[in-house]
Design brief:
four-stranded mixed sheet; single chain; 5 helices; globular; M1 Pyruvate Kinase, Domain 3
Length: about 270
């Protein structure tokens, strides 16, 4: 047991990178802050059509069955589609260097020309708050309880909400402490040696209602989630930041001065 756990402080329990945007996560025990504030190799590849539109879970249900299995050192990835009737063969690619080769594989699968772009800065969902997203384990467990009848377990909740940093030793929705009223001083906190600013509660899209493996859609998910999130909003949350309640996790900003610093599982989270 770490001292942080013994003292009852929130601590970093999981780090999940999503090296290819919209595809499988990778659990790591430590990660460095990249040059723009995200984590190195998180969302390092992104898929586009020829007319410059994203190919992701929001737009394309066909992306869900794709599996991306990374080597332990993240220097290669094997792409496959288990059970695909067209039998698109699995292939291994150097990561992150061989994005052009991967583009050919994706083009065959999607039956249209796909471009895979690589950025050392990643492709964050929120360009204004492009640091890692943060959520508590208890928040994810609460969602599992809300949707127990749908068979959403903790791992599936993690895959659906796709957050980067998970903290434990904290109650459900503790991460709502990490943002305040708009146009005010941003709450600051530290995880290990990395300084953060909290930004806003993360608005969700049409991905969480879908099974992360099959894309099967729960049509009532968003409505029920919104109702229960409203009912469960903790007293420490800033109500005016919720123009709607289909929000979960906290978006962050990380200053450029933090680039190169390392986050490690077990690091305490301290409000500053």
């Amino acid at each position: 047991m770490t001292s942080a756990t013994a003292q009852g402080h929130p601590r970093l329990a999981n780090i999940r990178l999503h090296p290819i945007k919209s595809l499988d996560p990778v659990y790591v025990t430590e990660a460095r802050v990249g040059p723009a504030g995200g984590l190195e190799l998180d969302r390092a590849w992104a898929l586009y059509t020829l007319d410059n539109r994203w190919v992701n879970g929001k737009r394309t249900a066909a992306i869900f069955p794709i599996r991306a299995n990374f080597a332990g050192d993240l220097k290669s990835v094997t792409l496959s589609v288990p059970g695909d009737s067209r039998q698109v063969p699995a292939r291994e690619f150097a990561f992150p260097g061989d994005h052009e080769g991967a583009a050919e594989w994706f083009s065959v699968y999607f039956e249209q020309r796909i471009i895979v772009r690589h950025s050392a800065n990643g492709f964050p969902d929120d360009p204004d708050a492009n640091g890692p997203t943060i959520i508590s384990t208890a928040s994810l467990k609460q969602v599992c309880d809300w949707f127990a009848g749908a068979g959403i377990d903790l791992d599936e909740a993690r895959r659906r909400f796709r957050t980067t940093l998970e903290i434990d030793n904290a109650p459900a929705f503790w991460e709502d402490r990490l943002f305040g009223p708009p146009k005010t001083y941003a709450p600051r906190f530290r995880i290990g040696e990395v300084e953060f600013e909290g930004s806003n509660p993360c608005a969700r899209c049409n991905v969480p209602p879908r099974d992360s493996y099959t894309a099967a859609n729960d049509a009532g998910f968003q409505k029920r989630f919104t109702e229960l999130r409203r009912e469960s909003l903790p007293s420490w949350a800033t109500l005016e930041r919720f123009d709607h309640f289909y929000r979960l996790a906290t978006n962050t900003r990380v200053a450029l001065s933090q680039a190169g610093k390392t986050l490690r599982v077990g690091d305490p989270l301290v409000l500053t």
